[in-house]
Amino acid sequence: MAQILTFLGKGGVGRTTLAIAAAKRLASQGKRVLFATQDPGPAVGLLLGTVLEADPQSLEANLDVVQLQATTLLERSWEEVKKLEAQYLRTPFFKEVYGQELGVLPGMDSALALNAIREYDASDRYDVIVFDGAGDQTTLRAIGTPEIASWYLRRFRQVFANSDLGKTVVPLLQPIAATVLNVSWTGDLFDQPATQQMNSVLEQGRTALADPNRVVAYLVTTVDEGAIVTAKYLWGAAQQAGLTVAGVLLNQSQDTSVLADQFQPLPINVVPTQPVNDWQPLVDALPDFNQAAQAPRPIAVNVAERKVSLFLPGFDRKQVKLTQYGPELTIEAGDQRRNVLLPPELRGRSVAGAKFQDGFLIISF
After folding, report:
1. In contact, 277 and 48? CB cutoff 8 Å
2. Which residues of 89-101 are buried (b: 16+ CB within 10 A; e: fewer)?
3. Whole-angstrom Cα distance, residue 223 to residue 98?
4. HSE toward the beta carbon, residue 207, CA cutoff 13 A
5. Residues sharing a CB contact under 8 Å with residue 70, sequence separation 6 or more, in sequence order
6. What pLDDT is stored for residue 45 in this prediction?
7. Nearest Cα to 337, choosing from 154, 195, 152, 198?
8. Would you call the peptide bond into 327 cis, given omega within 30 degrees of 0 as the criterion?
């Protein structure tokens, strides 16, 4: 399993340049590194001094680079879908549709990129994957997909099972499924081999996202006021997505006073302007990526004290909304919602109180 490292910030602050510098630094330390960019244009290849391809290619010792091309990834994923269809259906119908015919719909590129990262991670070829995504809410939603999708499966499974429709349709579907599917189906509609496989993949993603040694982000900003407020907003949004933010990179400036105390308690690293064709000053200015585990965690559960704490920097009390539905909490902050499944010890208990203090939402039961 690899560590997945990404960078968040406003466009034009140098995220891609710093991502490349991070990949070079980690490779120089002897780690097997994959730099994966979602940028479809030629600019990233120009920075790297090579023409990027849809398959990983070696750039230098310990460093491979790849361009996550949505159309190519769609073709490959479609072939996997057809294999699954052939496995579970007696008469496959997707076999007449070819991946080369498919167009990329909005949002599909993020999902395809995330799946590609998952596959590279599972390959055990790399110790670190540096993901150069959009660096904004799109990236956060993609990274947070396992937790969000698992909630949809969990929530709608119960809603459907309790509905009159579910109680009526499931008994009728079982004999039909026995005829159509290559597998025997009895019992729960959502407890079938394909669904179990999906749940397993989602759970692996959730577990990785919760571990800062596996998935971590750094904020990138300049002294521009718009860049600073964007970085601060993305910090809070990343916490809502369950992504640990481990530090701030101040690019093209030596004056950390412009950030004041806005990013406490994150460490701030000053990054100099890159000399032409000289990566070493940037590489030397980067933080120790092994210290990510010391960053504030997005969520902490204290069963003994019956408390749940969520770190939501960048938001104030008026922007945070808390609701409880059965064994889950829903926290709304900014443009994102997060559903927290309570541990067994706290399920069945109602929220007794909540306070917002120093960027933390502290919930008591």
Report:
1. no
2. eeeeeeeeeebee
3. 49
4. 8
5. 40, 104, 108, 109, 112, 113
6. 94
7. 152
8. no
Query: Can you read off the two tokens belonging to residue 53?
Result: 């391809």
153 neighbors 199 (Cβ within 8 angstroms): yes
- For the chain, list the domains and their CATH numbers: 3-73+101-145+205-294 (3.40.50.300), 149-191 (no CATH), 299-364 (2.60.40.790)
Question: What are the pLDDT digits (tens) for 75-119?
Answer: 877 777 666 666 655 566 666 666 666 676 777 788 888 889 989
Alpha-carbon dihedral 152, 154, 157, 160, rounded to 10 degrees: -60
Instruction: Map residue 188 onto helix, strand or coil.
Output: coil
Residue for token pair 């509905």: 163
**Secondary structure class of 187 (helix, strand, coil):** coil
Between CA 27 and CA 283 the distance in angstroms is 11
Distances (CA, A) of 311 to 86, 128, 248, 303: 45, 26, 16, 17
- Summarised one tens digit per residue, pLDDT across range 82-93 is 666 666 555 666
pTM comes to 0.81
227 burial type by CB count under 10 A (0-12 exposed, 13-18 middle, 19+ buried) = buried
pLDDT at 354 over 60: yes
DSSP string, 205-239: HHHHHT-TTTEEEEEEE-S-HHHHHHHHHHHHHHH
Residue type, 214: R
